[in-house]
Description:
Peripla_BP_I; signal
Amino acid sequence: ASATAALLLATSASAAELTVGFSQIGSESGWRAAETSVSKSEATKRKINLKIADAQQKQENQIKAIRSFIAQGVDAIFLAPVVASGWDAVLKEAKEAKIPVVLLDRDIDPSGKDLYLTAVTSDSVHEGEVAGEWLAKTVGGKACNVVELQGTVGASVATNRKKGFDAVVAKNANLKVVRSQTGDFTRAKGKEVMESFIKAENGGKSICAVYAHNDDMMVGAIQAMKEAGLKPGKDILTVSIDAVPDIFKAIAAGEANATVELTPNMAGPAFDAIVAFKEKGTTPPKWIQTESKLYTATDDPQKVYDSKKGLGY
Ligand code: AHR
């Protein structure tokens, strides 16, 4: 045992010497920008050299970045996968180069399960369920036509947030998803798609609630509702995901109703897992799950807004 310990000591890297390459998706949302910013501060805290490659929403750029990190011989690779499929080949290359990969905030297809060390993500099916349960409880059996703004097509979080919400709808005959379309996780597309939903649904009069897979799309949808002369949060209920400061501003103004929190600090637990793995040989659990807490107007939205400022927002 002492020989193993000596070997580990000899080959171990301290956090100060570690270089981590992070293939980030882009900057589609306020949450994403906060995740990038928190990753930098969490790296600085641990004296880790962090190299971030912004893929501008393109998987091909993420694959190129991973290959470049492998060529540079980084100690670990963090990957926020824009979509779930198409990673096996490049992750095999990382595995062959003995570079551990950590998934941040989104999952990949099950075929890639053996190709990464751990994933720091929420339970995104559960997020959809939390949003759906809030709506079911709030409307209390009243008939409610829902329009849905989906995230990026093919992203695990978009598939799963839909799945979780649909499961609640299936149990509540009064809830019906009448329209569902992608808004690609951006404010601009959320607004654009909501405008088309309003036009198609009797000027918005037949819409009871909007479910958006993230707060940024909801902020865009709120703008669309206001421009159409509707009162978001009153005429039309809202529930979305992320808990970014801007949604708390809207909740405080009575223009939004509920959000499910997703922490932007995915990198902190990922760095801890990598340091323990490199320094002590500790294998982390395959899934490091983050919390999914529901916030509504009863949670003092102004106070939550103020408290979010130091968290990368
Ligand atoms: O993968 C996490 C999601 O990606 C966030 O909910 C969304 O805002 C972001 O773009």
